[in-house]
Amino acid sequence: MTGPLGAAARLRAWAGKRERFIWAVVVALVMSVQWPMLKGMYYRAADVPAPPTSIQWRTDLASALVEAQRTNKPVLVDFSADWCAPCIVMKHDVWPDRAVAAAVSQSYVPLLIDVDRESTVAEQYRVNGIPTVLVLDARGRVIRRGSFLSASGMRQFLKTNQPHAAGGE
Fold it and tell me: pTM for this structure?
């Protein structure tokens, strides 16, 4: 067979011989992409408490901005919710990380916003999905925006913003 029909038949024959392998690759890809969601769902279903963190989260935007002006530090905002599986993973794996907690405590004013309780703040900063992590200057302007990050990704994100802590943008 030649032409488009012949090519389709050859592709079906090739895929049929490798169907198990193809499905294994698809499942592995889906698992790797969805891992934070699955891990968060496990933590929630098993009622696993998050490890303690040394980060002293503030919960009021206005107070955090005043503190940022007083201390000349940017505000690190974590937009989260109790039902958000990737947010739960960050509470378990990212914020308790010693290097992350030290960087946050030393160089930022940490602010935790529950989007269900503080929806106006989420709307103000155009938070369309969670987790969302923002770095704000002392006037509340967005310096940097992030999303779900692993502990190593968060360490890099925080290092990237170190110059802003000294003088802002």
Answer: 0.76
Q: What's the pLDDT tens digit per position in 133-157?
A: 999 999 999 999 999 999 999 999 9
- Which domains are assigned to the chain? 3-45 (no CATH), 61-167 (3.40.30.10)
Long-range contacts of 124-130 (CB under 8 A, 24+ apart): 125/77, 125/79, 127/79, 130/79, 130/80, 130/81, 130/84, 130/86, 130/87
- Please check whether residue 160 is in contact with residue 144, taking contact to mean a CB–CB distance below 8 angstroms: yes
Structure tokens at 159: 């290092």
Sequence-separated (6 or more) residues with CB below 8 Å from residue 67: 58, 73, 109
Q: What is the CA radius of gyration of the chain?
A: 22
In angstroms, the CA 87 to CA 89 distance is: 5
Tell me phi and psi for residue 52, to 5 degrees: -65, 150
